[in-house]
Write a structure and sequence with these properties.
The chain is of the alpha/beta class. The protein contains 15 helices and 16 strands. Strands 1, 2, 3, 4, 5, 14, 15 and 16 form an 8-stranded mixed sheet that branches.
Length: 437
């Protein structure tokens, strides 16, 4: 038994907040008891139960008022394994996740070989079980990420695919997308889409605005995202299938999702921390370290994303954790790969940009980083309840830390050197402490 005492518990599922003691059965990985502190109804009975549970505890951790919440869930990460393990592998990616407070992650499928067949999916899932956190994986929508032929979605679903995506490559064939949505719906799995029309992009990773002009390149115009989001939402509405718009970056796309959600409960959207934190000015300042797909946009877009998170248009926060080596990011802007790492800074950025500035409550932030993504992917996560999974994060929202020395194999982040609020003290997964700060 693991005894967590004097913690301020936040449960986004029930709306419960307050000081509770939590007793974890380390054998079955479940929460055994959640007992309120202080003068409560049936106080004497509660204290008797507490005494009994304390006597069973093999380890007691005094949280001293720190927050304790469901383990975070990130449904958009790249662990680069197999094929690109010089950037990241499943073990180092999981370590970065645990350090950031994440107990569940869903991997993207643009590996080499791609996750378009049983063997690669089995490899990823088996390796994930060695990590100490819950590692799930999407499978590809199309074979070889070629956008020409659908994978055996039914078979891959039975073998454990959490959802389907060709992330990094938009699905241009409308007929193929329609059929994919139908088949995914029958499997009860979501499809998540990277929404950028390559025909409109001259140089990806940089907004076709002030940043592109600064570097004298074409860049990625906002229409590349808007046009794809508009098309795909319409198809999803017609097919009544679960569709998630990945890493939304433009105010127009946010509004399109807002209107589509009024017509259907099958529409979802995610925002990455970098898109509600930074603008294209960061690319001018940090160069390739702030190059990503879709790119950082303008201040109006950043504020629209925050409003989308505030009013529920954007359901979840997902990092798009995208590690690259220092050598790759040292290439010229138009040659360097897009993407930044995000697992170890996501909670802190959410606290700084959304909670401390009054846009979201802490419970709302935790809900968008745990319960909401878990619901979309049908994961048993994102809540704290007796008998429920003992997946938790303990953090101090006021304590600060300097961004450096990542657990990830890569360090491609524009936030290196910044001082951020929100220090993760413990990450507990399946009743086991997998990270101690």
């Amino acid at each position: 038994m693991l005894y967590l005492k004097n913690g301020y518990m936040i449960d986004p599922a029930s709306g419960t907040e307050g000081y509770f003691d939590i007793f974890i059965d380390t054998e079955d990985g479940k929460i055994a008891k959640i007992l309120p502190q202080g003068a409560q109804i049936n106080h004497e009975m509660t204290e008797n139960v507490r005494t009994d549970e304390v006597e069973k505890a093999e380890e007691t951790i005094d949280l001293n008022g720190q927050y304790v919440a469901p383990g975070l869930v990130d449904v958009h990460v790249h662990f680069r394994d197999p094929g690109f393990t010089h950037k990241e592998d499943i073990h180092t990616g999981a370590a970065a996740a645990a350090r950031g407070g994440f107990t569940s992650v869903v991997l993207m499928a643009n590996t080499k070989p791609a996750v378009d067949h049983a063997e690669t999916l089995d490899y990823v899932l088996k390796k994930g079980k060695e990590t100490g956190i819950h590692v799930y994986s999407c499978a590809n929508v199309t074979k070889g990420l070629q956008g020409k032929e659908l994978t055996d979605m039914e078979s891959l679903s039975r073998l454990g695919a959490a959802g389907f995506t060709d992330d990094g490559i938009p699905l241009m064939d409308e007929t193929l997308l329609r059929e994919a949505l139908r088949r995914a719906a029958k499997c009860g799995k979501p499809i998540s889409l990277h929404e950028e029309n390559p025909a409109l992009i001259t140089n990806n990773g940089v907004n076709a605005g002030r940043a592109a002009a600064h570097f004298g390149i074409g860049g990625s115009p906002r229409e590349a995202e808007i046009s794809m989001v508009e098309r795909d939402l319409q198809i999803a509405l017609e097919e009544e299938a679960d569709l998630s718009i990945q890493h939304i970056s433009t105010k127009e796309a946010v509004e399109l999702v807002r209107q589509a959600k009024k017509k259907s409960g099958h529409i979802y959207a995610e925002a990455a921390p970098h898109h509600f934190t930074l603008t294209e000015e960061a690319v001018i300042q940090y160069g390739t370290l702030a190059k990503m797909n879709p790119p950082l946009r303008e201040e109006e877009d950043r504020l629209a994303i925050i409003e989308g998170l505030r009013d529920g248009t954007i359901d979840m926060i997902a990092t798009d954790h995208a590690p690259h080596s220092a050598q790759e990011k040292a290439k010229p802007l138009t040659e360097a790969p897009s993407g930044i790492i995000g697992l170890e800074t996501a909670l802190s950025l959410g606290i700084r940009e959304l909670v401390n500035k009054g846009y979201l409550s802490m419970r709302e932030l935790i809900g968008k980083m745990s319960l909401a993504p878990a619901k979309l992917y049908h994961l048993d996560a994102g809540y704290l309840k007796e008998g429920g999974p003992a997946d938790l994060v303990v953090f101090d929202p006021k304590k600060e830390w300097v961004v450096k020395n990542f657990a990830s194999k890569s360090a491609n982040s524009p936030f290196v050197g910044e001082t951020l609020p929100g220090v993760v003290s413990y990450t507990i997964c399946g009743g086991k402490v997998v990270y101690r700060g």
